Amino acid sequence: MDLASIFIHDTTWAFAAEIVIRVVVMFSMIIVFLRFTGKRGVRQLSIFELTIILSLGSIAGDPMFTEDLPIIQALLIMSIVIIMYRLCTWVMMKYQPFEDLLEGKSLYIVEDGALVLDKIKRGKMSHDEFFAEMRQQGVEHLGQVRVGLLETDGSFSLLLFPPAETRYGLPLFPKQYQVADEIDPKHCYACMHCGYVDYITEPDQQCVRCECESWAKALDSEIVR
Ligand SMILES: [Zn+2]
């Protein structure tokens, strides 16, 4: 064991320059790849922050047990990642389109008690995912929700109707989110695909909004918090 080998090994200036290029390319590739998955960030982390964690994780781990990976190379890589992070953050602050490109935009999922159609059609997110998010915030049915916004970090922001303005809406809990077999013409029903609420006469009546044909009995209970 000799210290020069642990810290420097066979690092040349040419290879140092190569590392810079490699890091910039890989860093960009991780961002592009994560963006293409169509996913939002994971639990409070945006795609961009996730990229930092992925990059730093492997850089920090590998030199711990790889004989011919000198510390100085890891140090160089970490420095470049940090510089790129700072640089991107700075450009994102100055230039909005760059931020949208890297982190995506926040999306309206619910408006006035119904799901926003083009968002669910494009498969940005499954029903299950945002139903779960709303349930966790104590929402029983869509008629309680005025606005539901999907943030860039994957979290879900809600604005609710005041209790007195609660309307009929699509149930979000599994026991009530059931296809109605028999129709009570005096009761409201909600389209299970888009959340549109209407009086219907047939169990397989077509939704005027999304052309889907399954309905669940709508709820109008006020939210309790
Ligand atoms: Zn519908």
Structure characterization notes:
The chain is an alpha+beta fold. It contains seven helices and seven strands; from the N terminus they run αααααββααβββββ. It has two domains: 3-102, no CATH class; 107-217, bsu07140 like domains (CRO Repressor), CATH 3.30.240. The protein has helices at residues 3-7, 13-36, 47-65, 71-94, 96-103, 117-121, 127-136; strands at residues 107-111, 114-115, 145-150, 156-160, 189-191, 197-198, 215-217. The protein starts with a helix and ends in an 8-residue tail after the last strand. The strands form two sheets. The chain has a four-stranded antiparallel beta sheet. Bound molecules: zinc ion (ZN). Zinc ion binds next to loops.
Q: What helical percentage do the residues reach?
A: 40-55%
Topology pattern, helix = H, strand = E: HHHHHEEHHEEEEE
Biggest sheet strand line-up: 2-1-3-4
CATH fold type of the largest domain: CRO Repressor
Structural class label: alpha+beta
- Terminal CA distance: 64 Å
Regions with pLDDT < 50 over 5+ consecutive residues? Answer: none
Ordered list of secondary-structure elements with their pairings:
Blueprint: H1 3-7, H2 13-36, H3 47-65, H4 71-94, H5 96-103, E1 107-111, E2 114-115, H6 117-121, H7 127-136, E3 145-150, E4 156-160, E5 189-191, E6 197-198, E7 215-217
Helix pairs in contact: 2-3, 2-4, 3-4, 4-5
The structure holds zinc ion.
Main features:
elongated; 225 residues; three-stranded antiparallel beta sheet; CRO Repressor; binds zinc ion; four-stranded antiparallel beta sheet
